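Incident log, support desk, overnight shift.

02:14 A customer reports that sequence design results differ from what the structure should imply. Their input is reproduced verbatim below. On-call engineer (initials T.W.) acknowledged and began investigating.
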C-alpha cells in the first residue's frame, strides 16, 4: 500500500475530525479498546495539537496520529491504524512523523490496552515502557457500600451535607465554580503529567460533552474553601469515578476515601451497575484504597518513551 501522510497544526475541520472519529470507532470495535483517549478526541477541534493524517492511494483515511503540546520537554502522542490497513506500513509512517515532530523533546506514546501491534510499533521506534495506567472496575450490584460513607452523597437541589467532620459536600454550579475547581485541581494534581495541566478551555469542553452532569461533580468545602472533589461520569449503566482530588492541606484525614465512596453511591443511585476508574499502577496509596473498596484491575495502558 502506498501511504500518503499530511501534517496539520490546530483544529481539524469538521470532515477531518469526523473521519478520525469513525476510524477510532472502527478500531475500537475490532480491538475491544478505544485507541484514542478523551483529551485526544477533544483536541481534534482545539487549536493546540499537531495532527498527522494518513491516506491510501484512493484518498481513504487509514491512520491518524496526534502529538500533544510540549509539557516539560515531553511530548505525548496517540495513534490509530485502520484494522484493514494494518501490516502495510501505516503505523510506521505515522510513527516516523511523530518522532520528527517531537525531535526536540522526549517522545511519549500511549498504547491503550497494551495491544501487541502498538507494543511492537513502539519498540521498533526505539521506545521503552515507562508508565502503566490501570483501569480498575467494581461491580456496583454486588458492592456492599461503606459504612463510613453511607449517606454521604448529595442530591441535586439539596442543602450541603457533612462528608467528614468539618467538611460539607455540595454539587458543582456551572458558571460559578469553574475557577475554584481549577485551582483545587491544580493543587491536588500538581505533580500529575495530564490532570494537573487542565485549564478553563479543557473544563468548558467537558461541560459541553453530552455526558456532563453538574450533579455528578461533588465539591467538598471546609470554611467555605474548596478542599476536594469527586467527579463522576455516567454513560448507560457504566459509571466512572472520573477524578478524585484533595488539596494538600486537607490530605491524610480520610477525605479521599469519603469522596470516592460518595461518588460510588451517587453512581449507584443513578442506575450504574459497574464503576470504573483509572489510576497509575505505581500510585500505591490510591491502588490500596481502591482495592479495599472492591475494585480490581481489568485493563492496562502502557506509555512508551524515548530515552531522556
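02:41 Re-run completed on a clean worker. Output:
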Amino acid at each position: 500500500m502506498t501511504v500518503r501522510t499530511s501534517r496539520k497544526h490546530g483544529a481539524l475541520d469538521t470532515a477531518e475530525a469526523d473521519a478520525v472519529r469513525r476510524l477510532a470507532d472502527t478500531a475500537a470495535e475490532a480491538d475491544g479498546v478505544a485507541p484514542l483517549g478523551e483529551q485526544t478526541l477533544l483536541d481534534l477541534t482545539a487549536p493546540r495539537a499537531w495532527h498527522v493524517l494518513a491516506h491510501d492511494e484512493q484518498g481513504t483515511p487509514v491512520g491518524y496520529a496526534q502529538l500533544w503540546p510540549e509539557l516539560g520537554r515531553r511530548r505525548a502522542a496517540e495513534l490509530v491504524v485502520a484494522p484493514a490497513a494494518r501490516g502495510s506500513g501505516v503505523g510506521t509512517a505515522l510513527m516516523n512523523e511523530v518522532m520528527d515532530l517531537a525531535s526536540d523533546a522526549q517522545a511519549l506514546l500511549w498504547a491503550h490496552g497494551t495491544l501487541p501491534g502498538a507494543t511492537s510499533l513502539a519498540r521498533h521506534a526505539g521506545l521503552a515502557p515507562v508508565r502503566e495506567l490501570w483501569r480498575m472496575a467494581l461491580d456496583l450490584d454486588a458492592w456492599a457500600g461503606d459504612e463510613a460513607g453511607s449517606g454521604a452523597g448529595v442530591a441535586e437541589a439539596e442543602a450541603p451535607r457533612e462528608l467528614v467532620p468539618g467538611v460539607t459536600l455540595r454539587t458543582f454550579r456551572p458558571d460559578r465554580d469553574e475557577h475554584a475547581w481549577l485551582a483545587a485541581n491544580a493543587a491536588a494534581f500538581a505533580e500529575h503529567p495530564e490532570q494537573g495541566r487542565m485549564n478553563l478551555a479543557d473544563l468548558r469542553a467537558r461541560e459541553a460533552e453530552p455526558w456532563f452532569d453538574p450533579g455528578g461533580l461533588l465539591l467538598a468545602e471546609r470554611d467555605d474553601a474548596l478542599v476536594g472533589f469527586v467527579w463522576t461520569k455516567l454513560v448507560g449503566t457504566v459509571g466512572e469515578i472520573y477524578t478524585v482530588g484533595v488539596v494538600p492541606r486537607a490530605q491524610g484525614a480520610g477525605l479521599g476515601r469519603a469522596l470516592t465512596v460518595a461518588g460510588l453511591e451517587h453512581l449507584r443511585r443513578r442506575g450504574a451497575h459497574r464503576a470504573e476508574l483509572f489510576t497509575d499502577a505505581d500510585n500505591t496509596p490510591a491502588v490500596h484504597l481502591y482495592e479495599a473498596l472492591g475494585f480490581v484491575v481489568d485493563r492496562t495502558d502502557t506509555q512508551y518513551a524515548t530515552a531522556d
